[in-house]
Amino acid sequence: MVDTHEIRRLSVSERLLLVEEIWDSIASDQAQVPVTPEVQAELARRVAEHRANPADVVEWSTVKADLERRPR
Fold first, then answer.
1. pLDDT single digits (tens) 8-63
2. What kind and span of H or E run contains 59?
3. pTM, full prediction
4. pLDDT of residue 36
5. How many CB atoms lie within 10 A of CB 46?
6. CA of 47: how far to CAs of 2, 44, 62, in Å?
7. Sign of torsion over alpha carbons 71, 68, 60, 26
8. 30 dihedral zone (left: phi>0; alpha: psi -120 to 50; beta)
9. Banded pLDDT at 71 (limits 50, 70, 90)
10. From CA 67, how far away is CA 59, in angstroms rounded?
11. How far apart are CA 52 and CA 13, in angstroms?
């Protein structure tokens, strides 16, 4: 197991890189990540909703612009 004290000694940028590496390692093994029945049901619901209303979408550029305008 990883020593959390060692992790805390890393800079924020180093810890972010570590998180990215961990996430990439999980993503490469995604077939092993269990998907709960609840998540499967939610995904099926979202796909059905999209198929029923394919024009009811917001483009990423619009979402991003809205987020950038919000105060932090």
1. 999 999 999 999 999 999 888 877 888 899 999 999 999 999 999 999 999 999 99
2. none
3. 0.47
4. 93
5. 10
6. 39, 5, 21
7. negative
8. alpha
9. confident
10. 13
11. 43
| Helix extents (H) in 1-72 | 4-9, 12-28, 37-52, 60-69
Structure tokens of 14? 């180093």
Tokens at 69, concatenated: 């305008």
The angle subtended at Cα 6 by Cα 4 and Cα 9, nearest 5°, is: 110
Tokens 């990423």, residue?
60
Contact by Cβ (8 Å): 23, 16: no
3 state SS of 33: coil
Report which DSSP code applies to 1.
-
Q: How far apart are CA 7 and CA 18, in angstroms?
A: 9
- Looking at every residue in the chain, the average pLDDT score rounds to 92
